[in-house]
Amino acid sequence: MKGIAMFADLPGLFSRVKSALMRRGQSECDAEDILHDAWLQFQTTQQTQEVKSPEAFVMKVALNMAIDAHRMSLTRGEQVQPEDEVIFDGSPSAEDVVLSRELAGRVIACLAQMDDKTRAIFLASKLDGMKYNEIAAKFGMTRSGVEWHISKAVMQLSDWMEGW
């Protein structure tokens, strides 16, 4: 008797071998793959020589294959399959792009509403990175005057952006 016909309980055999593999740390998918390979090894061997205990043969081959797979992962590292690879897309979503453009538009509109001197002082500080003393010297005013203009600009921006 060759092949499947010699097993009265083939699903039971597969279940027992798969369970044994999973108890030894194999994932369900890997256990199924090893079981498949062990069954093919049994079929190949059965064609050239008689296997006295087919169930023991399949179990032993499957367990040996699991050991080999484990040893290979220790020496070569885990093998990453392309379908297992998670690719992270760092680009912003379409919604984030739209919201950012709307926010920038509101800030530009608010800056356009400011008087020229307050806007120039605010941008010199925030965009150009100038220190308050440098701005004061550039505009011919005191440091406290620069602080007043910047606080005025911040208040106008806060009021303009409220509820957005």
Structure description:
With 164 residues, this protein is mainly alpha-helical. It has seven helices and no strands. α2 crosses α3 and α5 crosses α7. The longest helix has 23 residues. The N terminus is likely disordered.
Mean pLDDT: 84
Summarize the helix and strand pattern as letters. Answer: HHHHHHH
Give the helix tally.
Answer: 7
Record field, number of beta strands: 0
Uncertain residue segments: 1-5
Name the structural class. mainly alpha
Q: What's the story with the biggest beta sheet? A: none
Q: Rg from C-alpha positions? A: 37 Å
Q: Which word captures the global form?
A: rod-shaped
What share of the residues does DSSP label as strand, in percent?
under 5%
> For the terminal residues, how far apart are their CA atoms?
79 Å
Overall helicity: over 70%
Quick summary:
This protein has 164 residues and is mainly alpha-helical.
Key phrases:
mainly alpha; 0% strand; Arc Repressor Mutant, subunit A; single chain; 164 residues; rod-shaped; 2 domains
Fold topology:
Layout: H1 10-23, H2 28-48, H3 54-76, H4 94-113, H5 116-126, H6 132-139, H7 143-161
Pfam families: Sigma70_r2 (PF04542), Sigma70_r4_2 (PF08281)
Family: Belongs to the sigma-70 factor family. ECF subfamily.
Domain RNA polymerase sigma-70 region: 16-71
